[in-house]
């Protein structure tokens, strides 16, 4: 878990909640590679979301 969290930080993901990380662009290939490398395929879900309540703070964080 620690290794995955650090990798997500390095790639610029933002922690939204304890186990929820967000990034404003498509990262499906990266997540697929991380799941394979860390052998965590069933423990990690990749979700594409079009709207998040209170997303203004996320847009500000990612300079969008």
Q: What does this 3D model show about the protein?
A:
With 64 residues, this protein is of the alpha+beta class. Helices cover 39% and strands 11% of the residues. It has three helices and two strands, in the order αββαα. It has a two-stranded antiparallel sheet. It is globular. The mean pLDDT is 94.
Keywords:
single chain, 64 residues, alpha+beta, two-stranded antiparallel ribbon, 3 helices, 2 strands, 39% helix, 11% strand, globular
Question: How do the helices and strands line up, and which of them pair or pack?
Answer:
Layout: H1 2-10, E1 14-17, E2 20-22, H2 28-37, H3 56-61
Antiparallel strand pairs: 1-2
Taking Cα atoms only, what radius of gyration do you get, to the nearest Å?
Answer: 12 Å
| Tally of separate helices | 3
Uncertain runs are none
Question: Structural class per helix/strand content?
Answer: alpha+beta
Characterize the overall form.
Answer: globular
Count of distinct strands: 2
Average pLDDT for all residues: 94
Q: How far from one another are the termini?
A: 29 Å
Share of residues in strands: 5-15%
Strand order of the largest sheet: 1-2
Helix proportion: 25-40%
Largest sheet: 2 strands, antiparallel
The oligomerization state is single chain
Give the SSE string: HEEHH
């Amino acid at each position: 878990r620690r290794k995955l969290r650090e990798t997500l930080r390095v790639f610029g993901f933002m922690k939204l909640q304890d186990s929820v990380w967000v990034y404003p662009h498509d990262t499906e290939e990266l997540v697929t590679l991380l799941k394979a490398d860390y052998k965590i395929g069933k423990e990690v879900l990749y979700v594409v979301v079009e709207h998040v309540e209170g997303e203004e703070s996320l847009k500000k964080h990612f300079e969008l």
